[in-house]
Amino acid sequence: MAEPKENKDQTTSQSSENYEGWGFDLFPERRGTYKPNLKNILLQGRGNENLERIKCERKVASCLNKSPLVKIMMGALRRSGCDVNPSRHIACELCDTSVHGGYDPVMNQIVICQNTAVSKGTIQGVLTHEFIHMFDNCTRKVDFRNIEHLACTEIRAANLTHCGLVSSILEGHSSIFNFRKKHQDCVKHKAVISVLAVRNVTYEQAKAAVEKVFDRCYADLEPIGRRVRGKSVDFELAYAEAFLMGYD
């Protein structure tokens, strides 16, 4: 693993001179492009953003206090010397309806989509996924402008948090008879889709980047230490074993 960077708050570590193709169109509040109007209120049910934000922030606070995986990630960031302050590094915002959240490497900030991530379970998943990107940004020399770097952190996030037995079967990537073999296909699929969502590249380019770095990044289980399965004892086991990774 690469040595931790000297600057632990990565707010300005990524170039902000060209946002095109970075996926910020999915998060209109990021760059002040969202302007509510009568059409939003009448046709899209908008106008209740403040109430949504309050509810979102309360659920985020609950996850920070109670979720084993989220607590592992918070502990790992702090033990690695990374600056992590929920009021500074987590924001509830209005997003495109196709996403539940994201990580802004320019601002070093996690976005929780208050209009789509409405359950605690969804928010827990988003926080854990995006905390992995934040962890990688802080502890490794990740350049989010580099598609291979981006592919690697997306592989790690999918591997550690998304492709559990139930979700993998429901999405058609595996069955109870070939789960181990097909788990990698699920991770690759998730990583490719994630790269496509935030970068203006072709499917072939995204897939090639994922394939090139897959073996190394798939084998890296830090800081959770295991591939967790949804709604299983793996959550608690990972939390109990955090000391083995040095993140208790």
Summarize the structure.
The protein is mainly alpha-helical and 248 residues long.
What does it look like?
- By secondary structure, the protein is mainly α.
- The protein folds into two domains: 20-139, no CATH class; 142-241, no CATH class.
- The chain contains ten helices and three strands, in the order H-H-H-H-E-E-E-H-H-H-H-H-H.
- It has helices at 38-43, 49-66, 68-79, 86-89, 120-139, 147-161, 165-170, 179-198, 203-218, 234-240, and strands spanning 90-93, 101-104, 109-113.
- The chain has a three-stranded mixed β-sheet.
- Helix 3 packs parallel to helix 10 (234-240).
- The longest helix is centred in the middle third of the chain and has 20 residues, at 120-139.
- The two termini are 19 Å apart.
- 39% of the residues are buried.
- Mean pLDDT is 78; it is low at 1-7, 166-174 and 232-244.
* Global outline: globular
Radius of gyration: 18 Å
List the helices and strands in order.
Answer: HHHHEEEHHHHHH
The end-to-end distance, rounded to whole angstroms, is: 19 Å
- Side by side, the strands of the main sheet go 1-3-2
Structural class: mainly alpha
Number of strands: 3
Helical amount: 40-55%
When the domains are counted, the total is: 2
- Whole-number mean pLDDT: 78
EC number: 3.4.24.-
GO cellular component, one term: mitochondrion
GO molecular function, one term: metal ion binding
Pfam families: Peptidase_M76 (PF09768)
